[in-house]
Amino acid sequence: MIVMSSCLAGMKVRYDGNANTVEKIRQLVEEKKAVTVCPEVLGGLPTPRNPAEIIGGDGEAVLDGVARVVDNTGEDVTDAFLQGAYKALEVVQQVGAHTVVLKENSPSCGSHHIYTGEFNGMKKPGAGVTAALLRRNGIHVLSEENFLRYIEEIR
């Protein structure tokens, strides 16, 4: 079983109320070969919601208590992001998944890049809160781009 970001499967849970549908991922969920999670929704945040970015580091630093997740109005939403990350980890463990495919660039799900924390559209290397927590627990985390490349390679 694989766990996927809900937005990649076509669920409208992004901060702006939209989805980031990837057809191959949507099909896997439809075929019951994958389950979905949205850490931000699991953490109690509404859809739509204000965009948020990590200030002072990346997801690793948030887990270590040295960085915060703040939305574009200045509201600290770190606790919701942490709660959602731990709930996502529970789902991954419950279904016995060893691989998780998460939406790149997200402050929760980014596996290689996240936004800089300056709300200027720029990105920096780093992982989101959920991606970092899953990796700390031995889960293989991929972005949707890496997952699609992997699927093509094994065909």
Secondary-structure element order, as H and E? Answer: EHEHEHEHEEEHEH
Counting DSSP H or I runs of 4 or more residues, the number of helices is 6
Spatial order of the strands forming the largest sheet: 2-1-5-8
Please compute the radius of gyration using only Cα atoms.
Answer: 14 Å
Structural class: alpha/beta
General description of the model:
Helix 4 packs across helix 5. The protein has helices at about 25-30, 40, 60-65, 80-95, 130-135, 145-155; strands spanning about 1-5, 35, 50-55, 70, 100, 115, 125, 140-145. The strands form three sheets. The protein has a four-stranded parallel sheet with strand order 2-1-5-8, sandwiched between helices. A two-stranded antiparallel ribbon has the order 3-4. The chain has a two-stranded antiparallel sheet with strand order 6-7. The chain is globular, with a radius of gyration of 14 Å. The two termini are about 20 Å apart. With about 160 residues, the chain is an alpha/beta fold.
Topology:
Elements: E1 2-5, H1 23-30, E2 34-37, H2 39-42, E3 52-55, H3 59-63, E4 68-71, H4 78-95, E5 99-102, E6 113-115, E7 123-125, H5 129-136, E8 140-143, H6 144-154
Parallel strand pairs: 1-2, 1-5, 5-8
Antiparallel strand pairs: 3-4, 6-7
Supply the key terms:
35% helix, 19% strand, four-stranded parallel sheet, 6 helices
